[in-house]
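Below is how a single chain appears once it has passed through the pipeline. First comes the sequence as given, then the structure the pipeline wrote out for it. We keep one example in the README because the format questions we get most often are answered faster by looking than by reading.
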Amino acid sequence: MNMTTDEQENAANHILHGNGFTRLREIISPDEASTIRDDLLQKTDAAREMGTGVLGITDLVTAGPEFIELVTHPRLLAVAHALLGADATLGAFSARILMPGCEEGKLHVDYPYWAMNPGMPVAPAMMMQVIWMMEPFSEENGGTWVAPGSQQWPTPTDPTRFAGHAVQATGNAGDAIISHGLLWHRTAHNHSQQPRVAILINYTQLAIRPMVQMGPFSEEFQERASPELRRLLAFDQAAALRARLAY
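Resulting structure:
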């Protein structure tokens, strides 16, 4: 289901001028989310047996067609294009698994903002993050801590200020928290007895160097890529720039 123009603008307004994040409900069904969750946990069987606190799976763009469908989902791209432009690109695409007992993570803002001096303007946004829930997020299993409105705070992250404003982002399987890259947030403690699984997507302006180097991609992969995926991976950008500069 695509977003209406009003829904797209409302989501972008929340991210830029409101809480700094918004929740999109049931982008995929709970059953679809559960299937992806099981797939991701199977990919980490060996690491889970070691009891690692946080597990990550990077570069999901080559992990299968179901993951390409996630990163090119029209509801996500609608908000990314509203914030970052029609030529928004993919900065990172990974899974994050909080194992039972995993402790809180470090307070931070997202790339590219953590690599810059504090006080960067909120608009236009340089980056939009997606925290996609592959199962219900709750206070018990480690719903991410976020500080509403903190994208507007032109200072370095401060744990004391954060603690006075932070709330836990909760939701159902298939929901996603879409946030500004400047939003202050941190990984929460997983008090449950089960892994908490999320998909993380980083969309950026075209001019921003990707946080993670993806690829190389085979010729077959590039030939099969949809127009949406080609734009996200900037496959045709060099040719487009040459055409734009030709005279």
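Residues 80 and 128 are 7 Å apart (CA to CA).

See the next section for the split statistics.
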